[in-house]
Please model this.
Amino acid sequence: MVSDSGGHDAAGTLEALASPALDPLFWPQARTAVPSAWHGHVPFAQWLVAAARPGLIVELGTHNAVSYSAFCETVLRERLPSRCYAVDSWAGDEHAGLYGEAIYTELRAFHDARYGAFSELLRMTFDEARAVIPDDAVDLLHIDGFHSYDAVQHDFQGWASKLSPRAVVLFHDTNVLEPGFGVARFWAEIRGRYPSFEFLHGHGLGVLAVGGEAPAAVLTLCGLSDPSATAILRDRFASIARTHVLEFAMREALRQQEQALQGEMGGLRQSLNASQQARAAAESRLLVQEHTIGTLEESLREAQEKARELEAGRVEDRLENRRQQAALEARIAALGDQAVEVDALRGHLAAARADAKAARGQAPPLPGDATMAATGTIALTAPGAWAWTSPLNGLRRRPSRH
Ligand SMILES: C[S@@+](CC[C@H](N)C(=O)[O-])C[C@H]1O[C@@H](n2cnc3c(N)ncnc32)[C@H](O)[C@@H]1O
Model:
């Protein structure tokens, strides 16, 4: 619209920008913190549900539920009488990657608290879920399972009978041309058979108005023939969604930073623990060494005490030896003296014998001479022998030493 002054109608722009009809484009998204290639399409999904007001929504491939929460959030905020079903094995696949139970556990808690009144998580295969959903009932089907050509074709054809006359089908990853991804090829085949529109950002999202009575707003979108209008709409939806993409990217960067810091802190804590343990070990080694030193010092004291006692004993022994040696020497000297006395006695005895012999020659025979004659010796014990031995008694007196 052009204003009277020839410029754009600024007031009209403001009015349009403030329109409650735009609300779904600007609602904050519910699942900002979980990874998904779907963050870039959240505003469109919210607009679509608000505009199409689908009675039954089914999603094939939910994982962290970024797309599914965009549908449910609108049902919640707009108080729509919709029923919603999310189908997934919550085990992952070759393209999404195989993931653990934590994804489902976290989602189940979030989902039940926020959307439990009108939505169900069907943990099963897409084929199994067909038995749960009635035919001709699904107004909005989102196909976002395994992305091979065969899988997408199988999902679309398998669920065709479930689609209502108002049905709109969304295909994610229409703009992924990597090997193994076949959505682009399938989309190229199908988009001409029904009214369609394709967003190119966020891996590509195809909108297919399959039902003959598809909502007017969807048909308007799919009916755009002006390439510049198509480009503008693509760009604006992508721009609005950029806040979600950036918010997730920022959160993810923060999460990774926090994880790295926690890893670093873990490492630091480990080295702190290790050095505290090493210190404790060194302290206990020190205690053991101090104890050993104490024991050694005690043993040393005892050994020195024993050495002192032994030394004292040896001194005493030496003194005793010396005493005994002195006694022996004295005894030897005494024996020497006695030997001298004995020699002297022998001399006296020999002299006495000689005297006696001489006297015998002059004197009459004495009693006992017969004995002496027979034995050749004097019987000193015979009566009267004292007269012969008395000179010997005088000799037994110790001679004085000179
Ligand atoms: C690309 S992810 C879905 C992404 C999700 N729409 C989002 O908003 O992020 C694909 C999911 O489909 C599931 N899936 C693939 N083939 C399936 C099948 N035949 N039956 C059940 N689940 C399937 C996988 O477990 C995976 O979680």
